[in-house]
Amino acid sequence: MGLPPCAGEWGSAGVTLAASRARLAIKGASGRQAGAAAVLVREISTMRGGLSTASLQVVEWLTHRGVARTLRTAYEPTSQVEFATRAAAVQQPDW
Questions:
Q1: Which residue from 25, 49, 51, 20 is spatially nearest to 37, judged by alpha carbons?
Q2: pTM (2 decimals)?
Q3: What integer pLDDT is reported at residue 2 of this predicted model?
């Protein structure tokens, strides 16, 4: 049995859209990249509702930099110190 979650805990999740499984939905949503994006957004919106039922909240979508940072810290946890140092420097510029 795990510990109960604490307020303020953060996690991340990724979503992949399999073109072969979503082919009809993509085609029905105008096809190509725009259709795939529309289907992906619809699936994420559906997933957001399911997460709410489980008392989880989607707070934000990650930017390109946010995705890169998440991947880097997953494989190189010590890089969190570097990111924290940069964030502190931005908050308190000496110039």
A1: 25
A2: 0.50
A3: 44
